[in-house]
Amino acid sequence: MHGSLFVAIVLCMLLLLATSSQSQDPRVERLLKQGQAALDADDFASAVSAFEEVQQLAPENLAANRGLVISYLQSGRLTDAMDLGKKAVTRWPKDAPLQHWLGLAYFKQKMNEPALEALKRSEALDSSQFGIHFDIALVLLSQEQYSQAADELEKAIQLHSSDALSHVLLGRAYQNSNRTLKAIKEFQTALRMNPNLPLGHYHLGFAYASLGRDQEAIAEYQKEIVRSPDNPSVLYQLGHSLLETGDWKGASTYLQKAVDLDPQNADANYDLGKNLVLSGDAAAAVTVLRRAIELKPANPSAHYQLSRALENLGEKNEAQQERQRFAELKKSQPQSGGMATGRSQ
Questions:
Q1: Residue 15: inside a domain, yes or no?
Q2: Which residues, including other chains, have CB under 8 Å from residue 336's CB and lie 6 or more apart?
Q3: Distance between CA atoms of 114 and 89, rounded to whole angstroms?
Q4: CATH number of the domain bearing residue 80
Q5: Would you state the torsion angle of the CA atoms of residues 92, 96, 97, 99, taken in this order, to the nearest 10 degrees?
Q6: C-alpha radius of gyration, the chain, whole number
Q7: Rounded distance between C-alpha atoms, residue 119 and residue 332, angstroms
Q8: Which of 199, 195, 203 lies closest to 173 in space, CA to CA?
Q9: CB-based contact 265:273 (threshold 8 Å)
Q10: Per-residue pLDDT for 228 more than 90?
């Protein structure tokens, strides 16, 4: 999102200067330019003030309504943006920017259904804007509608192919709809455009890992660690891939740090416990695996690893109970398909 929800705003700002015949008053022209200048300078309070004054002078001025809606959005006054946006689209139902910004106001308030409706209306009115496809994709991604999000991002990239973030998001949409090879190409494209793209190497590493290409995944995660040394997700995924390759010592360092930074991560606790079992530290493994089970009781594998640790400690009865629990959970859960690993992004 380029740091905010309003990725399309810059593309639409010039529209604010397209005034109606009612805005010939020099005061109106001056205030519109003043409001636009304030928006360009990220002085949203001044922009609101200028556009509100225009609206008082010329309430039927389209440019003033556009400017005020976007100023409310940028200043965080989401309820005001939504209320004015609804009135404005009633007055100008065929104005694509107003529909777009009303959709953003809904989305910022986590009202995804009306957001998507408004954004789709904007798209129907003007499908030539990169931002509308991008923002529709954001809503769809938040709803885990990955195939539909990919369709919108493909349209966005056709209009603006050099936007690295769009390629990352398209890669994520592909990854989560089981098109991992296509995802890898998108992540690679994004990193060529911007080698310092936040979490770019992480996403590429995850895609490699989901195909079982752990050495390639490790290489990408290690690049990301340099940029994000305290990101628990990156630490966990690097530790997981090292564990998959049998590098228990290397895995231990990253998994322990991931758990320290995010104690509620059941998967990190499980992997750390499994690593401790494999490394021969059964007593420490029992503590960590019991924590993993508390966090995710339905994970059969945690009960299996706990049974191994208890067995190594000579706790035969408890080990048998955990093996029984493992068998029960395994039987009750259907086989999962999809990516090569069971991890989710």
A1: yes
A2: 342
A3: 13
A4: 1.25.40.10
A5: 70
A6: 26
A7: 42
A8: 203
A9: no
A10: yes
Q: In which domain, by residue range, is 56 found?
A: 1-131
Range from 10-19, 98-107, 145-154, 200-209 carrying the lowest mean pLDDT:
10-19
How far, in Å, CA of 22 to CA of 91, rounded?
15
Q: How far out from the chain centre does Cα 118 lie?
A: 21
Q: Is 2 left (phi over 0), alpha (psi -120 to 50) or beta?
A: left
What percentage of the chain has pLDDT greater than the value 70?
90
What is the predicted pLDDT for the residue at 271?
98
The reply to whether 58 falls in a domain is: yes
CA-based nearest residue to 136, from 23, 125, 122: 122
- Distance separating alpha carbons of residues 211 and 341, to the nearest angstrom: 7
- Number of domains observed in the structure of the chain: 1
Quick check: is 342 in a domain?
no
Find where tokens 């499908």 sit. Answer: 127
With beta carbons less than 8 A apart as the criterion, state whether 92 and 101 touch: no
Contact residues for 335 (Cβ-Cβ < 8 A; gap 6+): none
Task: Identify the pLDDT of residue 25.
Answer: 80
Predicted TM-score (pTM) of this structure: 0.83
Q: Give dist(CA 204, CA 190) in Å, integer.
A: 10
Q: Residue 220 corresponds to which amino acid?
A: E
Amino acid at site 44: F
Confidence class for position 345, pLDDT limits 50, 70, 90: very low
Confidence of residue 7 (pLDDT cuts 50, 70, 90): very low
User: pLDDT, tens digit, for every residue of 312-343?
Assistant: 999 999 999 999 999 999 988 865 433 333 34
Q: Are 233 and 259 in contact (CB under 8 A)?
A: no
The answer to whether residues 55 and 61 touch, using CB atoms and an 8 Å cutoff, is yes
Q: What would the mean pLDDT of 276-300 be, rounded to a whole number?
A: 96
The answer to the question of residue 33 being in a domain is yes
**Contact present, 65 and 84 (Cβ < 8 Å):** yes
Contact in structure between 95 and 82 (CB atoms under 8 Å): no
What backbone torsions phi and psi does residue 83 show, to the nearest 5 degrees? -65, -45
